[in-house]
Input
Amino acid sequence: MTQQAGDNKQGLLWKQEHLSPLPIPTGQPASDILGMIWRKNDVYLDIGSLSLVGGWVTLYMGSLLIGSFLVYALVERDFLFFFLILLFGGTMMAFLWIGYIRVYRRPLMPPLRFHRQRREVRIVADDGEEWTVPWERVHAIAPSATMVGQFGAAKMGGLLLWFPFKDEIDEPYHDKKPGWIIMVSPGPGAAAMRQWECIRSFMEIGPEAVPDSTVMHNHELSVWQSFVQDMRDGVKTHGWLRTVLWDGLASFVFNLFAYDYLMRKKFTHIPDLTSPESIAWSQPLPPEQWARRSAELEAAIAEREKDLAASEESQASTEQAG
Output
């Protein structure tokens, strides 16, 4: 049987949550955690699967850690420890950085385009083949797994978007069915739901419910000017303490200035859909020609919104009683 939103599968150390179809509200706010939104307007939303911030933070902190061990070994004149760290740690970080650089230098693929007026998704495969998939045939899955090691347990997760191939649009879905897939790693549970909610809210509510693209955010400013402006906006929204400790300190600790510079170079030119068929498909439609939700989805959304409202009322009552 085809899984629907709300269906879950769970094992000892893993869980798989289905968010769509049908694309009902998750209860989480729309948040573009990975900067997947490349382009947004009143007609369509473009998303890309390239996100290098997680890899940058991990590799940069790993390099700092290895560097700290090397400095410590030199200060203590422990040359054996120094060469062991340089050999094993340095080799490992070198391989990881080489892989990161290769991904960074790889040409950007055309975006995945969600047309809210047609309620369709336009896909461009690696070989150039293009096709459209009905919005309500998109499968969104949030897999997560718990990794247990000597330092404890860590939960990891992501967001998987599955689309049927061109000649299999109407065939039923199952776990092992091949399809065209995007997999990203915003995090498990609520984090994956927030990233998915960016897409779902655009299609079901409108562009005003979705954050603007952060790929080219403030790129008319220098890296430092952009940082200062973001800090000012953060102070107005969250106050001095949170902004300085979280946004400001993290920028220096993880060297996000260098990352910002690299991303500006990478996204100087965002790819677009260029075939005549895709250009024609991307055009706006008169309101009377807009596609509508299916009756099944309409009922599912109404039921889900009722459940969320009841949950919020119950939570408010509990807080008042407490």
In short: The chain has eight helices and eleven strands. The mean pLDDT is 86. Residues 61 and 254 are 7 Å apart (CA to CA).
